Amino acid sequence: MMAVALMSSDNRAAAALGRTAFPGGTQEFVAAMNREAARLGMTNSQFADPTGLDAGNVSTAADLIKLVRAAAREPLIRGITSTREMQVQPYGDGGTLEYRNTNPLVKRDDWRIKVSKTGYIHEAGRCLVMRTEVAGHELDIVLLGAQGKLTPVGDSNRLRDWLEANPRTPGEHLHSCAGVSDPNCWE
Question: How many domains does the chain have?
């Protein structure tokens, strides 16, 4: 269920995890999500449901960087979120269900995605968070509020191309550069 929820953004799987993972059901699951966010220092985040579909789920790019860094330390999450596709047989002798990663970049050989999660609700737009390797450096990317379905993919490609064309030394960090092609975006 976790693989289907994280890799394929299957909201039914996320809701089922929320209902069954804790004795207190969804309410306790969401409380645990909020406790973990607080533990990670995500001071501007609040979770309202396990699927991400409730507009009461709020966060910031800075908080999501903390989350992607924590997720990158978990081998299970790294493996799940960078998997291209998977097949499951939930009905024993029944048919096979196929699930694909909602981040199309994981399917491309020119990307080295280590952690990835997409999301969408009307209030937040199309979102993508991921850890990848670009120009020999690990990079955490958070793209929020895109209107078009493939806009985060295009933005990721443009960001990668710009970084590869403007190499920096280790220790320099990219920040607050959304939509800006400016070499001063580096700290």
Answer: 1
Q: What is the pTM of this model?
A: 0.87
- In angstroms, the CA 119 to CA 76 distance is 20
SS3 category, 16: helix
Provide the pairing of β-strand 97-100 with 137-146.
unpaired
Alpha-carbon distance of 95 to 108, in angstroms, equals: 28
How distant is the alpha carbon of residue 57 from its chain centre? 14
8 within 8 A of 99, measured Cβ to Cβ: yes
Q: Which domain holds residue 177?
A: 2-185
| Cβ partners under 8 Å of residue 157, min gap 6 | none
pLDDT tens-digit map of 6-32: 999 999 999 999 999 999 999 999 999
